[in-house]
Amino acid sequence: MDGGRARKRVTALTGGALFALFASFGWQIEHGGESRPLTALLTAALLTLPAAALLTALYEGNWRRLLPRRAEAPRGGRPFPARRAALLLAACYTPMFLITCPGSFAYDVPFQLRQVFTGAYSTHHPLIHTLLLGGCVALGRALGSIDLGAALYTLVQMALLASCFALACASIARRCGARAARRSLAFFALYPLHMLFSVNATKDVLFGGCFALTLALALELAQAPQERTDGRLVAGLAAVGALMMLLRNNAVYAAAVWLLALIPAGLRRRGLLKGALLAIALSLAVNGALTAATGAVRGDLSEMLSWPIQQLARARLTQSERLSEEECAEIDALMPGEAWREYDPTISDPVKFAFDTERMKADPGGFLRLYVRVGLKCPKAYLDAVLALTMPFYYPYSRYMTSGYYLQMGISTEQIGQWCGFDWIASHSLFPRVLASLSWRFGAQGAMQIPVVGWLFNTGVIVWVMLALVLREAYFGRWRRFAVALLPVLLWGTYLLGPVMAGRYAYPFVCVLPVLAAGPGADREKTP
Q1: Helices 37-60 and 459-475: crossing angle, nearest 10°?
Q2: Cβ atoms within 10 A of the Cβ of 263, count?
Q3: What pLDDT is recorded for position 124?
Q4: Contact indicator for 239, 276 with CB cutoff of 8 Å
Q5: For residue 304, what pLDDT is reported?
Q6: Host H or E run for residue 174
Q7: 475: part of which helix (H) or strand (E)?
Q8: Which residues pair with 347 in a beta bridge?
Q9: Is the four-CA dihedral 242, 247, 252, 258 of positive or negative sign?
Q10: 3-state SS class at 127
Q11: Cα dihedral: 255, 260, 261, 264 (round 10)
């Protein structure tokens, strides 16, 4: 068997096993609330070969009409019209601005604005986004209308998002041709989540745009002829990559591991390695400067402990008979007021917010020993706690089960305390009935009650498509592209450690789908 056939079989089997495991455990958690590991493993073993065969059929099928593999020069030799593309995208997002005017200000917006108006900053939320959001709102308030400031932020965000997508399409055009770029542009313009998120003030929106552009530039550098590496591409990757990391703290961790994966590819494409390294260094320097300038304090450590907190709470709630009185007392001390009774399998916040971080920090060794002891006694409770918390991120669920809205729309008035001595942002929707309908049909349940359409919002489907596109690069032996395409996978890994699955967490993966889907272009890699 030649190396190419062996590589394809190994990749297809690996992917088939991965998807089979996800399907087996995900089905059990969705339909039974807990796992049956032996049954899941046996089921996965039976599903691996069919899943591998399906992947092979997808990769070997004639998809040229959808995903052309050869480079196609832009018509007439003209560069991709990025400015017109950005205007087109902004025009597509404008109707949603009129529906939600001055935009959707929910999620962490009250917390971030409190920092700006009180001067008590925290690194829990990205400082650069907090300052941009708060600066626009504060400017509007200074001019006599906080709603004007909110609208200003939404319009700035729409322009930046449209620009990122247009520049990503331009990169795709240079790498794969005009047809691939036009198809990507259509995706960015018409996919429903882009319209809904373009007016949503969460940090994930701008992060998603920068994430897509960073990946597009990195792929372009990975495929650029070694002797013709463009310094502008390196500088662009450094600047946009740094902004991406400044907009989400966990992106720094993903990028650090990504840098290690890029080293083999970077030996022949040093511009790629240089751009990634500069991006990490620049983001750390800018974030350090912003932290010093604002006097921001570090966020609560419990934000990084969603898994252990959920696992301990589930073990205490469901298997306390296996624990000693001392272990129960230690858990009770870490979760005052028997907060473990508030355990929600789909979100760690109810228990996490009550978790005594200071007690844990006072004796981290004791906490670790407790965690290990309880885990040895209640391994299934630990496994099920993780599977239930992360299920929507690895399984295409048939109904939205997570606590809270899939997508928060409108104006949030929660967490508005004494610090807010002025009128809060108010909705001025030109189409309030449409807004109410969208908030319920799309926001509350992720459109899962709408046949076919609901699957466009399904996080599990989005993740599976992303993983299949990444595996495609390994299947065809395009190792430089595969190394670059690992960035979304690594970021996905950080989300698995998070407190909940929400639509905004899925959005960055939606943004990179057309970038991953575009073919390798003219510089098709040879299998080593």
Answers
A1: 60
A2: 11
A3: 87
A4: no
A5: 81
A6: helix 146-176
A7: helix 459-475
A8: 344, 500
A9: negative
A10: helix
A11: 140
Q: Mean pLDDT, to the nearest integer, of 94-99? A: 97
The amino acid present at 24, given as its one-letter code, is: S
Please give the DSSP secondary-structure letter assigned to residue 440: I
Confidence at residue 170, expressed as pLDDT on a 0 to 100 scale: 96
Tell me which long-range contacts 295-298 makes (C-beta under 8 A, separation of at least 24): 295/121, 296/121, 296/122, 296/123, 296/127, 297/120, 297/121, 297/122, 297/123, 298/122, 298/123, 298/124
CA distances (Å), 16 to each of 5, 13, 30, 324, in order?
16, 5, 21, 42
* Coil, strand or helix at 67: coil
- Residue 469, CB half-sphere, CA atoms under 13 Å: how many? 24
Short-list 401, 390, 393, 400, CA closest to 460: 393
pLDDT over 90 at 162, yes or no: yes
| Mean pLDDT, residues 249-260 taken together | 93
Q: In the predicted model, is pLDDT for residue 246 greater than 70?
A: yes
What pLDDT is attached to residue 229?
A: 61
pLDDT in tens, 289-313: 999 999 999 877 777 889 999 999 9
d(CA 317, CA 370): 16
- 3 state DSSP class of 344: strand
Q: Which residues contact 418 (CB under 8 A, 6 or more apart)?
A: none
Label residue 115 by pLDDT band (50, 70, 90).
Answer: very high
CA distance linking residue 95 with residue 91, whole number of Å: 8
For residues 230 and 451, what is the distance between their CA atoms, to the nearest angstrom?
Answer: 47
Separation CA 474–CA 454 (nearest Å): 30
**Measured distance CA(489)–CA(74) in Å, rounded:** 31
Cβ-proximal residues to 211 (8 Å cutoff; 6+ apart), any chain = 244, 251, 488, 491, 508, 511, 512
Angle between helices 479-496 and 503-517 (to 10 degrees): 170
